[in-house]
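Obj: model holo form, ligand = FE2/S2 (inorganic) cluster.
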Amino acid sequence: MITHDIVIVGGGLTGLMAAVEASPGADVAVVSKVYPTRSHSGAAQGGFNAAMGDDDTVENHVFDTVKGSDYIGDQDAIEILCSEGPEVIRDLETMGVPWSRTGDGRVAQRSLGGAGYPRACYAADFAGHVVLHTLYEQSVKAGIRIYPEWYLVDLLIENGSVAGLLVYQLASGRTEVIRCKVVIMATGGYGRVYQKTTNGHANTGDGMAIAYRAGAVLADMEFVQFHPTTLYGTNILISEAARGEGGYLRNVHGERFMAGYAPQKMELAPRDVVSRSIFQEIKEGRGVEGSYVHLDLTHLGAEKISERLPQVQDLARRYAAVEPSAAPIPIEPAQHYSMGGIRTNLNCETNIGGLLAAGEAANVSVHGANRLGGNSLLETVVFGRRAGRRAAYLAGSAGLAPPPKDSLDAAMERWLANFGQSRPEVEGDSVFVIRRELNRTMTEKVGVFRTGEELKEAREELAGLRRRYSALRVPVKEAPFNYQLTEHLEVGYLLDLSEITAAAALRRTESRGAHFRLDFPGRDDRNWLNHTLIKKGEKGPVFGTGSVSITRYPPQERGY
Amino acid sequence: MHLTLSVSRFDPKADTCPYLKEYVLSWEQHETVLDVLFKAWHEDPGLSFRRSCRSSICGSCAMIIQDRPRLACQTLVGDLIGDGGRLSLKPLPGFRQLKDLVVDLDPFFEALKQVIPWVLALPGHDGRVDPKAARLAEGPATCILCGICDAGMQPAGRVSPAALVKNIRLAVDPRDALGPGRLKIAGLTGEGLMTFRELLAQICPKRIDIPTVAVE
Ligand SMILES: Cc1cc2nc3c(=O)[nH]c(=O)nc-3n(C[C@H](O)[C@H](O)[C@H](O)COP(=O)(O)OP(=O)(O)OC[C@H]3O[C@@H](n4cnc5c(N)ncnc54)[C@H](O)[C@@H]3O)c2cc1C
Ligand code: SF4
Ligand code: FES
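Output (holo structure tokens):
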């Protein structure tokens, strides 16, 4: 049996930051289903928010974030996020991140949506990529043990505390048990429940689903962010940086339609507002070809585009056959970010002993009902660092639990139940078909605009899909690089998370941030100024509420 | 439109050597090679290939497409063939084929340790970096560690191509204690660097622009 003090699941920004922070004092390992540099953090383009500008302050950043969250971000957590931000950016600086620079050599910052100041530290439009690679360099330097292409399949919990993990090694096709004192879940979001998403193929929410099945509390899963500007068709992200650098949104008549929805912030209103405005334009017949709108960068000029937005330029040319300095880019909103996740306290601890969570997989909650651009990357490093610190402390003060026994037997039983012969309920059924239908249901019925009726339909459809899924098995067990197996497991996670998201959305009878109910269009602070808490019950998710931390900013009307 | 996809298959548990398997698939103008690979997989779930970002930024999907190494998600089918054409996919050469299009990348990541692959921070550096110097690092810092250069090029100096790209990225960083001295340590001559620059430009999918630094 492999043994480590701390095992971090996930090699994205959160996982690597936690590993680098925890490693001097503890034996740390990173388990990741893709090589760490392949994590989706590397696709982030825009930047990391931190109040470092001359006129900017931590208070401003806190207020913008609280308002952006539509007042259910926890203000104590937001204060930590914003006040530790500048310090973490300086840490990253020391590690060697190749930021873009101002004339006098400081880290350059740009405006992103919902912010009062240019606050996002950037490196052209490769912010996530360069920081991910720098943290990877640091983990090599620290000699951290990395297990690439190892899949977490189960958490082993004995007497309410973590005793280890059951993992599947892609290359050998076999399972292994890892014993440890602390696990940090840094497994990212679950964007792949949607058909239209900016997220990569690995973002299937494994960590959230596995933790939930093991008894961890999830929170706020109804809040899903839709990014306004993704390439029409492929949904590859065109960063908010494109609007931060001055890009316009135009409808079929060439009008900057944001003037009608957010006259002050215009294109840089928060994402929930912009995404709804785009759909409204399309619905009212002002979409281009009836189905998308234009992101116009032509007035920025070729030079600025290739200096500040080289990746955007490349993506538009390659995937949309558009030269952004010469023609507008066809865009549509698509799923982008999961505000919900594994509920944690300010030290990233969950309700299970020895289980920590951070980053997009977690809900601490700094984003509330809507995340601001640049705050998620900041969250990965601020809370990744806190999780690493806390894990090192916990590992130092606890001994290794005895080898997992009952939990391992139960986990192996669940594992073996994945294999065998399928008895499909529907002729030709497969996990591919189920995934496609699940994606469609979620996009059509649990999307930007929601109604009680459609959410109920979604719930029914998902229940049917679950029944069909339960008849399917994976034919081969110990095969190397068995992506048929990982697909089977991932569809199981997507089903759990879709069900939870739809049920939570049905339950919240108000509109707040990214959760918009056409049948309850107003915010209802009397009944809903609270977090949704979700626990696994005998017959599916059981819901409760948790209070919101309000330290300085009582809820106000949210205008932009 | 249709195409015939020919894929190198190899299962270490069942096969003594790789063989080619063909799939007849439909495709559309905007689709990438990765898109059609997914279609092949849906027909034949035992097919193995790596993927993650699908937007040319993670480096997972490097393979031989037609005659040369490319990223599957970056390559548009329509740029290579027309209706009824043939598309051939093979694993990246120079690495052990583990299963179908998946190769053993541990040696690739290990090779990065031929250089000191992190900024050796100059003590007391105030962190400020001249924007011109920062721009020099931008090209090599966009390397996605896809492995294509190691598969298709000879080592330059004493180190593998991707390790050299990392080394150059660090050599131009004013915060690094070794700085340009890194290139000499790696056994590189000024001429060697120029040749490397040209060869990399022909093969690297990110078309990384290697800055011309003086090799001390
Ligand atoms: C295209 C795009 C652009 C973005 N741009 C910005 C931006 O400009 N600013 C901003 O603030 N935010 C941005 N975001 C959001 C931000 O990038 C993400 O929220 C953040 O990077 C998530 O980091 P993470 O480390 O929590 O997860 P990820 O980077 O997603 O990493 C998850 C890790 O978990 C591993 N993993 C998952 N499941 C398993 C399993 N079963 N077993 C083992 N390992 C597993 C994966 O291998 C991976 O290493 C963007 C997001 C996208 C999709
Ligand atoms: S230098 Fe280019 S070819 Fe080589 S690993 Fe980096 S991105 Fe790939
Ligand atoms: S899937 Fe990421 S580079 Fe192709």
